[in-house]
Specification:
heterotrimer; A mainly alpha (334); B alpha/beta (249); C mainly alpha (297); A: mainly alpha; C: 297 residues; 2 domains; two-stranded antiparallel ribbon; globular
Chain lengths: 334, 249, 297
């Protein structure tokens, strides 16, 4: 008799928390569902906006995470490459009146050149030292490039909008999208897939992966570390430049635009655990979509939108410090 | 009988690899015990588990009648178990004096003590005496990164000694050391033993092990193969097989 | 001219305290904490809000700011110090962004981007410090006292542990140091001193807006510590003086106002990069003297 009661309490004790959680989820779920129903008409639009901004963040964060995994530091000046891409495209396209394709070609050429020069003159000489040093240097570079942009173009907000960036409605007016937005998403997905294939199958991609897993061993096997560093900075700059051009159609040009997207990309790469490519893509889309949903549905006031990635990030650090897709790290590093 | 130090059924798995698998052995008080075995036998992992630098999956570690639960690694040092690493881990940008003072100031180093006058003369004296035995007192204000390998190895063992720990784990103290330095290390270890300390050594240098140890534990594939005196281990057929492979008699 | 020099000196004195307290966590312990400026801002906002809304005096503000920034630092440390190196840098930068956003948008508390006006000058024991000279002397005394305490911390056994942690965390654990607690305390101490600097700033400027959290301020703080040498007590003070001198240069060349800020930033950025390139231990390195002496022999 008592024995069975004892067993029953054990069972209840084990089940009580799952049951309460389930009830809470049901209550909140119904609440959320009814809330979403009232806003159902704008949700597709918000999802699309989230997808676009996720694609942009992904382009930036892929470069960041690759540079981290090869060179071992976080490149704070990476956001400035985005800004340079946008501004140089504007110079070619609006001031010199080039067509879109040659203008973007010119802008990308310029950005890649800057990326390679940064690598050659600022990061390679200190690549063997304490990783704090390139990090601080990149912070300085970021501020320097920002100020140069400010001096040349002024603090005034410039726009790039023209006929090409008019919005069109799709799917019975549920979604408004512009051609640059569609192009952004398509390009971003194309670049992600080709990047993964490049790293997996090409000879240079293989040597890049070798360097990232163990630099010293890769060097003894005759892999040219400097060459893979160059490739990584070039690829990163290319993606940042494309992100910059696309971002220029999305929003106004201002000297701080690079920093703003860089900060979201930071949050994205940590969310998906630093150094992992799948993680960076996942984190980028998570942040893009959740930011647009939270602000668009009026859950968080739009003034706080800058903080959203970091609120997500800090919540995650509380729950799972090693990143959503990361492996558990051990306390020992020998 | 309750041993001074004992581990029971210690396990650690890395994925499918059983790095340490049901490891059981005990160490007698005031002895020098060697832990040997082929590469990959799980010796260093066992050290990491004992010093709580890695969380164990299963098993008990008993030290001086106390069952050590899952503790932060620094607590273990305060309880009296201290370890070295395979590579030398001194503080490269601190001077030798500071390296050794760090070991001496045990628990009295919270920030609030900063505002009271500190009298480190006595500690400095202790450090100088212990350095004089190895002719290193001239180097006392040099940075640790400027020392030679052998010198830093001795400084490292001295540092561990100065913490006052009772049970000292040394991970390959003799590897890469020239013969004269090796004699000094042997002297140091014997001195530690005569001071009542207990020492556990991982080492590949067989001459050193056979000379120094009172007892030897042989590990293979994460398990204890044999625990016996050096003479018995030298003659044992199973140990030879473990080192040289079974077909290579 | 005298007034101008005095105001420059007062700001310099506040900056010395800010930089030296940052030097404790970033320089000595090696915590790559990019969000340190939030403690400065929180200290300043504490003083501004309490003073304008509740009429709390200068000294009470100092004590409250120490408590509040210390509390924030504890929370911040428990959250972020589980991370190491670059993770820490990003998480702390994020925390700075969040605080900045809160300061800009919580209108009822901080009055948003319009800022808080009408903070009083310090009043201590009934004496009104409203002339430039008296404020400077008061601040000089307070900052000297704080620097004395910081000097004690830097050169104590505790400071030695912090330097050991910067060198090799694992080795510090292996000689029985509670690394996590030492790090958190270094953050809390450094935050409290920064909070004091913030209070001084608010009671001197008499006006406060969210630009105190801006990115260039963070970089300026990093620059001071890096130029002075990470963990170098006297070098840090020298470096504040040096940088204050440099930052006044563009003003004398008569650049237009819009560009002064940008040129100064470029100057600072190139200085930061140059120091990191050629003198990663700072311009005022103790080791430098020693090597020179060695070469002579």
């Amino acid at each position: 008799m008592w024995d069975s009661i004892y067993k029953l309490t054990l069972v209840i004790g084990r089940l009580i928390f799952p049951i309460t959680t389930f009830i809470l989820i049901m209550i909140f779920g119904l609440e959320i569902f009814s809330f979403l129903e009232t806003k159902a008409t704008i949700i597709p639009q918000l999802l699309w906006n989230g997808l676009v901004s996720g694609a942009l963040i992904a382009l930036v964060s892929l470069g960041l995470t690759l540079i981290y995994s090869i060179a071992g530091f976080i490149q704070f000046a990476h956001g400035e490459l985005v800004a340079l891409g946008a501004y140089s495209f504007m110079v070619f396209h609006k001031w010199l009146n080039w067509e879109i394709l040659p203008a973007s070609g010119g802008a990308l050429f310029f950005v890649i050149l800057v990326g390679l020069l940064l690598e050659k003159f600022f990061f390679r000489p200190v690549s063997q030292k304490d990783s704090m040093i390139p990090l601080v240097i990149s912070i300085g570079l970021s501020m320097g490039i920002q100020s140069i942009i400010l001096i040349i173009f002024g603090a005034n907000i410039l726009t790039m909008s023209n006929n090409f960036s008019k919005s069109h409605s799709f799917f019975n007016n549920t979604i408004l999208a512009t051609y640059p937005q569609i192009l952004t998403v398509a390009l971003s997905i194309f670049l992600m897939i080709s990047l993964i294939l490049f790293l997996k199958h090409s000879k240079i991609g293989k040597s890049i992966r070798a360097v990232s897993s163990n630099r010293a061993v890769a060097e003894t096997f005759g892999i040219n570390v400097n060459k893979s560093l160059q490739w990584i900075f070039g690829i990163g700059a290319l993606m940042a430049g494309i992100a910059g051009i696309c971002l220029g159609f999305e929003q106004n040009l201002e000297p701080l635009m690079g920093v703003h997207i860089l900060i979201k990309a930071f949050a994205a790469i940590i969310l998906g655990s630093i150094g992992s490519i799948r993680g960076a893509i996942f984190g980028a889309f998570l942040i893009g979509v959740s930011e647009n949903l939270l602000v668009g549905l009026g859950i968080i006031p739009s003034g706080f939108s800058v903080a959203i990635p970091f609120i997500i990030l800090i919540l995650m650090l509380l729950i799972k410090p090693e990143g959503l897709l990361g492996k558990r790290f051990e306390s020992l590093r020998q | 009988m309750i041993q001074y130090f004992q581990i029971k059924n210690l396990c650690k798995y890395f994925g499918g690899l059983h790095a340490v698998d049901n490891l059981c052995f005990s160490v007698k008080k005031n002895s020098i015990t060697g832990l040997i075995g082929p590469n990959g036998a799980g010796k260093t992992t066992a050290f990491n588990l004992i010093s709580h630098f890695l969380p164990r999956d299963k098993g008990d570690i008993l030290f001086q009648n106390e069952n050590l639960k899952k503790l932060p690694a620094y607590i273990l040092v305060r309880k009296g178990i201290i370890r070295t690493f395979q590579q030398i881990r001194l503080f490269p940008n601190l001077t030798i004096r500071e390296n050794l003072l760090l070991a001496l100031s045990k628990n009295y180093d919270g920030w609030w003590t900063s505002f009271f006058p500190i009298n480190e003369a006595k500690k400095n004296e202790e450090i100088e005496i212990s350095l004089q035995k190895f002719d290193l007192e001239k180097l006392i204000d040099e940075k640790a990164e400027d020392l030679s390998y052998g010198q830093s190895r001795i400084i490292e063992i001295l540092q561990k000694k100065l913490t006052g720990a009772d049970f000292i784990l040394l991970d390959e103290p003799a590897s890469g050391i020239n013969p004269t330095r090796l004699l000094e290390i042997e002297k140091l270890l014997l001195e530690l033993k005569s001071n009542g300390k207990t020492i556990l050594i991982i080492e590949h240098n067989m001459n050193f092990i056979m000379k120094m140890c009172d007892e030897i534990i042989v590990m293979e594939n994460g398990k204890v193969l044999l625990q016996d005196t050096p003479q018995a281990v030298q003659k044992n057929q199973k140990v030879l097989e473990a080192y040289l492979g079974k077909n290579n008699k | 001219m005298f007034e101008y020099i005095l105001s420059l000196l007062t700001i310099t004195v506040i900056l010395v305290l800010l930089a030296q307290s940052y030097n404790l966590s970033f320089g000595l312990t090696g915590l790559l904490n990019l969000g340190h400026i939030i403690f400065y801002g929180i200290g300043a906002y504490t003083a501004a809000i309490l003073n304008t809304k509740f009429g709390v005096g200068f000294f009470e503000n100092l004590i409250l700011a120490i408590l509040i920034t210390g509390g924030f630092a504890t929370f911040f440390g428990l959250l972020c110090l589980r991370l190491s190196g670059h993770y820490l840098a990003i998480a702390t930068l994020g925390a700075a962004m969040i605080t900045s956003v809160v300061a800009n948008n919580w209108m009822s508390l901080t009055n948003g981007p319009l800022g808080i006006r009408g903070i009083e000058n310090p009043i201590v024991f009934g004496y009104h410090f409203d002339s430039a000279l008296s404020i400077f002397s008061l601040y000089f005394i307070i900052v000297s006292f704080c620097l004395f305490l910081l000097y004690k911390i830097f050169h104590s056994p505790y400071g030695r542990i912090l330097r050991a942690i910067k060198d090799d965390e694992l080795a510090a654990i292996s000689v029985g140091k509670n690394v996590f607690s030492a790090k958190i305390w270094s953050l809390i101490l450094s935050a409290s001193f920064t909070g004091i600097a913030g209070v001084l700033y608010a009671h001197y400027r008499l006006f406060l807006d969210p630009s105190i959290f801006a990115l260039p301020e963070i970089i300026f703080a990093i620059l001071i510590v890096v130029v002075g040498g990470r963990g170098n007590f006297w070098g840090c003070i020298l470096s504040v003086l040096f940088l204050q001198f440099i930052s006044e240069i563009p003003r004398f060349f008569g650049f237009p106002d819009e560009i002064v800020g940008a040129t100064r930033n470029i100057l600072f950025a190139s200085l930061l990069i140059a120091v990191m390139f050629w003198k990663p231990n700072g311009l005022f390195d103790k080791q430098l003297k020693k090597t020179l002496e060695k070469n002579k022999k």
